[in-house]
Amino acid sequence: KQLVVTAEIFRAFRPERNIQGFGLDHIQSHSHLAAAIAARLPLPNTAIPAAAIAALLHDAGKLVLASRLPLECERIRRLTIGGQLTFHAAEEQVLCASHAEIGAYLLALWGLPAPIVSAVARHHRPAVEADDDPRFGPPAAVYFANLLAHERAPDPANGSAGNRPSMDQEYLRALEMENEIAGWRAMAESVQAPCPRPVP
């Protein structure tokens, strides 16, 4: 069911025109890479499917924005030029919300499980929450997988390299994972992400 919903979201919200940072091809390739990385992070076996699906869908909100609010997307893109703002900060300035929240709302409406919705909603807001079980579960995996995928294949729409979000060190310490980053980066470099199939 979750894979069918994923395919339908990529089909239903295909943007009519290409806007840098909101293009279907880039979002698909980044999402597939993030999903492949998330599935290889130190998760309990029972949490891997939810983390992989959440990573695959974490940027669904960008497709919603590109297909429904293209003018606002252009304003967001302009604010990132030259590293003025990160992509996420530009969204907050223009929309008072982010693609993470918009995507999570859509997925909740479509009936996806709470761990997937939570991971999508939180992929730019890392924090250990009281009901996180396990502590390193889908929200943590999607947060790190997204950053590792961006490190491996940077998106020019996210601003200059120095202005892109970096790993939250406090979050790493809270998860007791601060010594794992070098290994995760090596793993991310070796991942062969599946090529996304074109959406008809």
Write out key terms for the chains shown:
single chain; 200 residues; mainly alpha
What's this model, at a glance?
By secondary structure, this protein is mainly alpha-helical. Helices cover 58% and strands 0% of the residues.
Task: Give an overview of the whole structure.
The chain is mainly α and 200 residues long. Helix 2 packs across helix 9, helix 4 packs across helix 5 and helix 4 packs across helix 7. It has eleven helices and no strands. It is globular.
Supply Rg: 16 Å
- The coarse silhouette is globular
Q: Percent of residues in helical segments? A: 55-70%
Q: State the end-to-end distance.
A: 19 Å
Total of helices: 11
Arithmetic mean of pLDDT: 88
Beta-strand portion reads: under 5%
Largest β-sheet summary: none
Order of helices and strands: HHHHHHHHHHH
Q: What topology emerges from the helices and strands here?
A:
Layout: H1 2-12, H2 24-38, H3 48-57, H4 60-68, H5 70-80, H6 87-95, H7 99-109, H8 114-121, H9 138-152, H10 169-175, H11 181-190
Helix pairs in contact: 2-3, 2-9, 3-8, 3-9, 4-5, 4-7, 5-6, 7-8, 8-9, 9-11
